[in-house]
Amino acid sequence: MKNMITKILSAGLVISFLPGCIKDKGNYKYDYGNSVTIRYATYSYNAFLKDTIKVYPMRTWSNPNDTTEFEHAWFINGKQVSDEPILKYVGQELGQFSAYYYMKDKRSGIQFPAASQVNLNVTSPYGAGWGLLYEKDGESELAHVRVAGTTYFDYTGLYKAFNDGESMGSDPVKIRDYYVTGGRGMYVLQNGGQGPIELDANTLKKKLVAKNVFTQGPPTDFKPVDIGFFPTTDFMVNHNGNVYARVLPQNALPYAIPWVSTPLYITGGLKVGDIWDTWTTMSGWGILYEKTGNRLLRLRTYVPNMGNPAIAIDTFPVPEVPYPANYTSLQRMGNWQYVWGGTFNDGWNFMDGALILRSPDDNNLYWQTFEFNSDGVFPKITPGTRVPFQGNSVVTAQSKFTAVKPRDYLFFTGGSNNDELWYYDARTGAPVVKYATTPSKINVITAHDNGNSIGVGLEDGTFIVYDISNQVIVDGVSKELHRLTGLGKVVDVIVKGGYTN
Length: 501
Known about the structure:
Helix content: under 10%
Shape: elongated
Oligomer: single chain
Strand content: over 45%
Distance between the termini: 90 Å
Number of strands: 37
Number of domains: 4
Number of helices: 4
């Protein structure tokens, strides 16, 4: 206890003598440096991937005559990205990023932060617009045309640009854009190089090489020609008609599901010649043309009694009323030759279907229609009519077709060089009308989902967007909205972010 008292007293003596050691003259002087207040005209900036965002701070100095003796630092995600007074940031990744800015007075060493961070929003210019697959100098490549009102922006050589200069491949066939959890994917079918690949549609970075993601290796002579994407199952069609599937669990991680190496089979055979361009996310159904039985098949997603993921492929239901006398059975078309098939007015559990068939008797083309209805579970087919197709004298073996779904127009190509663009009014059945003649052979035509424009890809590497709105059709004079040249050879055209499966 005595020792404790002694220690307390000693400490008290030290404390009591401390004030006497400091000479307080009562004149305090602090160095705040040349203080500066930093703010921004706006605190959010937007730019597309790989574009440059420029941020100009607004500064107010305590000493306006001394504004140069400062160091600058910009930080994003805890990493310094610039030491310049103006931020010039190139967005390399999609997302929202917060930038923090500091100025340091060199004389005093005092650092002054901006009043708030700045938000940098980097988005993709490739999420919507026209997607193009082309071949140039023996290599497959991707291009994109972004539409902003009446202004068009062209991007070419995209695969190499976003994949470290790698060649995508060769002998391109087709591209498709489709939904994946949290974004959009893109599939490229090509026969050369690394073969079919899967990309992130917004960043155009490669995710998967198809031949490497089959459960037991890719099929023999793997050269796919068609592909379709549905809510629970995707299909890839090889050149021999065999169909391969990958089944997608709900909220499946993108680019993580393999293709099953065993081809699908149903009674009567399954050799698919055409996956129709239906808006399955709206109608709930898809349609396939099957070559073995020369028939149509219907497919349905979200099959309750089979659980999910599941998809049902089956023959078309027999109509409740007999087929008309002059009508070709959709379950077995016999000797009638399938030329084209597609749908119009795709809506909730409904599609207007149409086919172009070639008669075995007179070798002429016929236009045949039907209605596809459903209660969500059971489909119902109502036969329409079969009439001579007004474009019989125009269509050739090279002809391409695209349905303008909201407006019941069929656009197609013709001419000895396949350089003529025609249209047929399916609602009135009026004679076909020649819309335009292009400077080169037409390789592909695709109608926009809004029904007001059409994309045309040419053999000479030209891509043209035409206006097909009502007023243009009424005026009877073609109207070109945009033209992109120098692509080598355009192979396929899609509407990115659209409805087609």
